[in-house]
Amino acid sequence: MDPKYDFLKKIDRESSNLIKGLQAVQALEGYVSDESILAIAEYFSIPSVEVEGVLSFYAQFKRIKPGKYKIAVCDGTACHIKGSTLIEEWVAQELHIKAGETDQRGHFSLERVACLGCCSLAPVFSINGRVYGKLDRKNTIKILKEYQSK
Ligand code: FES
User: Fold this and answer.
1) Is pLDDT at 100 greater than 90 in this prediction?
2) Within 10 A of 97 (CB to CB), how many other CB atoms are there?
3) pLDDT one-digit tens code per residue, 51-89
4) In whole angstroms, what separates CA 7 from the centre of its chain?
5) Ligand 1, atom 1: nearest CA belongs to which residue?
6) Rounded to the nearest whole angstrom, what is the distance from the C-alpha of residue 114 to the centroid of ligand 1?
7) Cα 19 to middle of ligand 1, angstroms
8) Which residues pair with 126 in a beta bridge?
């Protein structure tokens, strides 16, 4: 196993700890790569297809490498009522990616998330954790353009 996965050794090798292992990998890499799947399968002595099965079952795990800027469009109740679907659509059109994707140059990734805890600012999205609220088409595009040039 590649030494970069030595951190797994802090976790007991019991298969019941598989999720802990996957969470550790994701915390470190931001997603679970194909290479990580093989390392985890080797560490827990289980087939890689079993690891993939667990990954596909739990929505918390990401299989696509996140972009430099991670955009999380809130689709909680308050944001949904205030038009989060349109916000996501505008972001998708501007960046040519859909929720769950990263653009080709690895600059942006887009995801749809539950409440970001800023409902009074609905509709909102966050970029690398920074929250932007009271979004409309104009300010959404303006914010994205600022990040496109970074
Ligand atoms: S529903 Fe969007 S911040 Fe709460």
Assistant:
1) no
2) 19
3) 999 999 998 898 888 999 999 999 999 999 999 999 999
4) 22
5) 76
6) 7
7) 28
8) 72, 131
